[in-house]
C-alpha cells in the first residue's frame, strides 16, 4: 500500500486541481478509495470538473492534515468501469445518502494509476520533504541540484535560509530539507544550480 496515497485517503476531502486549457480550477473533492497503489474518486457528469478531465486528464491534488503534514500528487487519470463505482460505494456508505439508489448513475469513477508526488512535513523544523512515484511514472530528478560549474565559493550556502547546502569541493544540496525557494540560484554567479520541474511535466 502506498502510504502517501493512503495519507490522502485518510484526509479524504482534499483539493483537486484541473485546467480547462485556459484557466486553472480547483475544488474540494473526496479520495474515495486507494487500492493496489491506485487512487479512485467520483465525478458527476454534469460538473465542469468532469468536462475538464475529459479534455485534459492530467490532475493535481493536495491535502494537509492537522499536524501540517501534506501530500501532493500529479498524474493522469482515466475512467474505470462501473464495477469500481459499486466498490467505492461499499467503502463510502455515506454515498448512499448523497446519491441514493439509481441516482448513482450520474457518477463516473475515475482512477489515477500513476503519478509523481511529494510528502512535505511542516510539523518539524527544518521541514522534511520526500518524493515518491507510483504506477509507471518515473521522475529522473527533482528539486534543485548543484552542477559541475560549481567553484566552491560558498555564496549559495550563505544565502540559504534552511542551511541545507553542504560544503565541499563542489557544494551539494540536501534535498530532503530544501524549501525550493530558489534563493541560492539568485546568489550563484556561476550558473551552477539547476532546477528540475517534475511537477510541471505534462506527457
Ligand atoms: S554559489 Fe554557485 S559556485 Fe558558489 S558554491 Fe554555490 S553553487 Fe557553487
Ligand atoms: S532552494 Fe532555498 S532552501 Fe533550497 S538550497 Fe536553495 S536556498 Fe536553500
Task: Write a short abstract of this structure.
The protein is of the alpha+beta class and 203 residues long.
Describe the structure.
The chain has 203 residues and is an alpha+beta fold. The chain folds into 2 domains: 3-134, Electron Transport, Fmn-binding Protein, Chain A (Pnp Oxidase, Chain A, Roll), CATH 2.30.110; 144-200, Alpha-Beta Plaits, CATH 3.30.70. It is built from 6 helices and 12 strands. Strands 1, 2, 3, 4, 5, 6, 7 and 8 form an 8-stranded antiparallel β-sheet that branches. A two-stranded antiparallel ribbon has the order 9-12. Strand 1 and strand 2 form a beta hairpin. The longest helix is centred in the N-terminal third of the chain and has 9 residues, at 3-11. Bound molecules: iron/sulfur cluster (SF4) (2 copies).
Shape: elongated
- Radius of gyration, in angstroms, nearest whole number: 20 Å
Alpha carbon gap, first and last residue: 25 Å
The unique ligands bound to this protein are:
iron/sulfur cluster
SSE string: HEEEEHEEHHEEEHEEHE
**SS-based structural class?**
alpha+beta
- Provide the CATH architecture of the largest domain: Roll
Number of domains: 2
Q: What does the largest sheet look like?
A: 8 strands, antiparallel
Give the strand tally.
12
Please give the CATH class of the largest domain. Mainly Beta
CATH superfamily of the largest domain: Electron Transport, Fmn-binding Protein, Chain A
The proportion of residues in beta strands is 35-45%
Give the count of helical stretches: 6
Poorly predicted segments: 198-203
Proportion of helical residues: 10-25%
- What is the CATH fold-level name of the largest domain? Pnp Oxidase, Chain A
Q: What is the average per-residue confidence, as pLDDT, rounded to a whole number?
A: 91
Amino acid at each position: 500500500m502506498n502510504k502517501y496515497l493512503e495519507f490522502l485517503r485518510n484526509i479524504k476531502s482534499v483539493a483537486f486541481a484541473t485546467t480547462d486549457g485556459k484557466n486553472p480550477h480547483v475544488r474540494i473533492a473526496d479520495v474515495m478509495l486507494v487500492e493496489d497503489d491506485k487512487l479512485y474518486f467520483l465525478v458527476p457528469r454534469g460538473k465542469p470538473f468532469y468536462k475538464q478531465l475529459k479534455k485534459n486528464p492530467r490532475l493535481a491534488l493536495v491535502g494537509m492534515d492537522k499536524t501540517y503534514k501534506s501530500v501532493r500528487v500529479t498524474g493522469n487519470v482515466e475512467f474505470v468501469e462501473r464495477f469500481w463505482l459499486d466498490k467505492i460505494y461499499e467503502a463510502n456508505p455515506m454515498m448512499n445518502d448523497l446519491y441514493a439508489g439509481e441516482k448513482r448513475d450520474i457518477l463516473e469513477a475515475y482512477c489515477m494509476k500513476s503519478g509523481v508526488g511529494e510528502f512535505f512535513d511542516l510539523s518539524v523544523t527544518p521541514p522534511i520533504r520526500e518524493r515518491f512515484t507510483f504506477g509507471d511514472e518515473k521522475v529522473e530528478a527533482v528539486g534543485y541540484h548543484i552542477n559541475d560549474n560549481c567553484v566552491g565559493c560558498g555564496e549559495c550556502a550563505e544565502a540559504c535560509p534552511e542551511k541545507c547546502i553542504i560544503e565541499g569541493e563542489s557544494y551539494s544540496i540536501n534535498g530532503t530539507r530544501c524549501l525550493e525557494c530558489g534563493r541560492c540560484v539568485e546568489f550563484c554567479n556561476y550558473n551552477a544550480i539547476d532546477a528540475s520541474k517534475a511537477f510541471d511535466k505534462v506527457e
